[in-house]
Amino acid sequence: MTEPPIKVLLGKLGLDGHDRGIQVVAQALVDAGMEVIYTGLRQSPESLLRAAIEEDVDVIGVSSLSGAHNTLFPALVEACTKEGLDVILFGGGIIPEEDVAVLIEKGFDEIFTAGTPLSLIVTRLRELVKK
Q1: pTM beyond 0.70
Q2: Is 33 in a helix, a strand, or coil?
Q3: 78-121: per-residue pLDDT in tens?
Q4: Per-residue pLDDT tens for 15-72?
Q5: Among 33, 99, 36, residue whose Cα is nearest residue 72
Q6: Which residues neighbour 27 within 8 Å (Cβ) at sequence distance 6 or greater?
Q7: Disulfide: which of 33, 34, 79, 125 matches 29 by Cβ 3.0-4.6 Å?
Q8: Which domains are seen in the chain, by residue range?
Q9: Rounded-to-10 torsion of CA 91, 93, 95, 99
């Protein structure tokens, strides 16, 4: 019996209006056999949390190109923790290297900076889900 596909919810937190990168990641995940739900632009941590619960996802991925990652990403962790939602969290985008460790310390499982190969994102998400 084959395992069900990894179910991934993707969204753009805050007012960041650039979504080309997250759409490319979404297509790579679909091409790798994952089920992807893209919630679109201008999401709040609470709206992503509600969608994740409703869709019963394994993974939530968010993107930030606006510099608000140090505020919005931890707010998503807090919302998930408060609700008791245990999912893999990953982020990506224009995130300075010095912020990566801070975001992981605050609860993200992985941060992919701009230019990360899509194959690495797919491989790493599969590894995280298997744990």
Answers
A1: yes
A2: coil
A3: 999 999 999 999 999 999 999 999 999 999 999 999 899 999 99
A4: 877 888 999 999 999 999 999 999 989 999 999 999 999 999 999 999 988 888 999 9
A5: 99
A6: none
A7: 34
A8: 18-58+75-94+108-131 (3.40.50.280)
A9: 0
Question: Taking the CA of residue 19 as centre, how many other CA atoms within 13 Å lie in the half-sphere pointing to its CB?
Answer: 18
Q: DSSP secondary-structure letter at 43?
A: B
Strands (E), the chain: 7-12, 35-38, 59-64, 88-93, 110-113
pLDDT of 34: 98
**Structure token digits, residue 75:** 């707010």
What is the chain's alpha carbon radius of gyration, rounded to the nearest angstrom?
13
Beta-ladder partners of 110: 90
Look at the block and give the residue holding tokens 């609860």. Answer: 107
Handedness of CA 59, 12, 73, 82 (dihedral sign): negative
- Supply φ then ψ for residue 123, to 5 degrees: -60, -45
Q: What one-letter code names the amino acid at 74?
A: P
